[in-house]
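Exercise 7 asks you to align residues with tokens for two separate proteins.
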Amino acid sequence: MKKWTLGLILVMAFVVLTACGGKKYEAVPINEDVDVCVICKMQVKDDAYATQLTTKDGKNYKFDDIGCMNEWKKTNGTDNIGMDYVRDYNDKDWVEFEKATYVYDSSLRTPMAYGIVSFKDKKSAEAFIAEQGVGKLMNADDLASHTWEQNKDSMNMGDMNGEMGSDGEGHMDGEMSGDSMEKTEK
């Protein structure tokens, strides 16, 4: 009888420990009425260019362009990121940043002119390149060494996400201000 009780206790302990595993992060919906990019302060559209990340302490940050999310990571680091997400260009489903496939070309029009479009799979990205006639296939590791330059010629288009910021580059006075840009603790 004691072996059965010990076995039951071990099974229950395993179930409890498994259930208490790592924290699960999920993408949250975009609310165009209130969501603004924490970097450039532009409205975050519920479209194919929206990105977001959630820190390990549960704070969610939304961006209108993957380049703005990259700026946040440069400033705040990546150690405290629980999960980061991009949108599939075709169906707008959320995709984990690390699992997505990317297409880059400076001529691609994105809200902040970084020229990067994300896809949930390589096949869709390749089809996009074939259709557009331009683009370089990339993955998350490739983006780590990407130069992240904005196409200044595209910055004057003004129709992607509202008006440009006061510095002419789409960012408000060239600063990342307010408590939304506080450095997260590592």
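Second protein for Exercise 7:
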Amino acid sequence: MREHLRVVHGDATPEELAALVAVLAARRAAPAPEPRPKRESWRNPARGMRTRLAPGKSAWRMSALP
């Protein structure tokens, strides 16, 4: 049988190992949390920020616009 858990440092008691195994088993059995819904882009405050300037013929004029 393959070992799944090994103490590499220290001196764990059987009770401590049993507590660790119980916590790991409970964590594995718990359902995964649902992903948070993505925020709507219209509510994003960064949307009102200025966009990057594109180089071009009248880029200097666009740099003065808010």
